[in-house]
Amino acid sequence: MERYKSVKDFIEKQERWKDEVVELRNIICETEMFEAFKWNFPVYTVNGKNVVGIGSFKDYFGIWFFQGVFLKDRAKKLVNAQDGKTKAMRQWRFTSLDEMDKELILQYLEEAIENQKKGKELKPEKKPLVIPEELKEELASDGTLAEAFEDLTLSCRREYADYISAAKRDATKQKRLEKIKPMILDKVGLNDKYK
After folding, report:
1. Domain boundary assignment for the chain
2. Distance of CA 80 to CAs 68, 83, 92, 93, 156, Å?
3. Which of 61, 88, 126, 147 is positioned for an S-S bond with 122, CB 3.0–4.6 A?
């Protein structure tokens, strides 16, 4: 996936959906939302809270609503971003400019803004930190590493634990463990370079 530096860079480097992304951005910018750039995509906020984002992919472009689960979706345009994973996020996907109904899009955007102002928010479930055996053993044998690991935020510790657990082969787990040890000692998160 290409890394962009800003909204402008994101738009300029669109190969397939440039006109469509520009039109979506123009529609969104008619609202009171503030434009930001997060997670490599344009994101629009109200009172510092994420409301919608613009995405472009191989087969479609669209809007994602961070708390889309609360939208009435009378026109039946929204789909779950990732069934089984995302609880609140919903996407509205397009494959051409002709599919975009500006007035309907603005209705959905205004409802999303109002929902945000009312504080409607589905918070992610807090899953427990499960440290895989390989990482437990390494932390038990290296006090400096264990101390650095404990100094990390819960989300950073969870990222490292999940990274090791996700590997299927023991050799891959060991390779990943060797990769993350210096990062833990530097007290940086696994995905900090993307933030």
Report:
1. 7-117, 133-194
2. 9, 6, 9, 11, 26
3. 88
pLDDT digits (tens, 9 = 90+) for 65-102: 999 999 999 999 999 977 777 788 999 999 999 999 99
Angstrom distance (rounded) from CA 30 to CA 106 = 8
Strand order across the 90-94 sheet: 34-38, 41-46, 49-56, 61-65, 90-94, 78-80
- Note the pTM of the prediction, 2 decimals: 0.67
CA distance 183 to 176: 11
At residue 91, the 3 state secondary structure works out as strand
CB 10 within 8 A of CB 22: no
- CATH number 3.90.1150.200 is the correct assignment for the domain at 7-117: yes
Distance CA 59, CA 40 (A): 18
Radius of gyration of the chain from its Cα atoms, rounded to whole angstroms:
20
The answer to whether 129 touches 157, Cβ cutoff 8 Å, is yes
